[in-house]
Amino acid sequence: MFAALVGARLLLVIVNWAVLSNHPSWLLELGVIHHPLVGAAGALAGAACAWLYVRWQKLPLLAVADVIAAPLALGLAFEQMGQLLAGSGYGTAAGPHLPWAVTYTDLLALRWSGAPLGIPLHPVQAYAALGFLAVSILLLALMPRLGRRGDTAGLWLMGTSITVYITELWRDPTGRGSTLGGLLDGPQIAAVILVLAGAFMLRERRSAPRRVQAAETAKSTGAAPAGEAEHD
After folding, report:
1. What's this model's pTM, rounded to 2 decimal places?
2. Where are the beta strands (DSSP E) in the chain?
3. Distance between CA atoms of 51 and 188, rounded to whole angstroms?
4. pLDDT tens digits, one per residue of 183-209
5. How many CB atoms sit inside 10 A of residue 200's CB?
6. Cα dist. 11→29, 42, 110, 113 in Å?
7. pLDDT, position 228
């Protein structure tokens, strides 16, 4: 978490260095701006720090990923609720007749997050929080049934990515990038990539035991495995 906060702030310093170099005291007041690029920088810094710690302690990487998957999904749910309270990552206009629409009135929401004031919006942060909470509960329920390392982490990749992709449909696209004529934004592209990575992880983990079992069977019978026989 500390590495993620430092990584996000370093990106803000680098991007705004021309201004901060003229006002160095502003570094002491540097806040957290909720932007996809800032969030990605924090996530990458946290993941790199976790990977280095796993290597340093000689821990099994896939087992560690399985253990932190459900708590990380729960943490994302709390993070989205924080965004809802602050007005960050706000949703699209909902119209006056949506019973659960949120309307921001505090100037800080406009100043720090750009949230429009006085307009009913979809509480997309709450949508995402519910999705991440569901992923966390699902992982906790399925983890005892998953016997292979990496399966829980693979399901986390798929579940969180699907949640991000769907909830982006109700999130204001300002500053989130746009591709294919506005069909996809930056977080949705990342979500597609992570879904494919999770599916690939599950496929690889499920096919590996069959190869091991085939090798052990060939060894016990004294026959060469299929690949080696063809090579000979």
Report:
1. 0.76
2. none
3. 25
4. 777 788 888 999 999 988 888 655 544
5. 12
6. 15, 9, 22, 17
7. 47
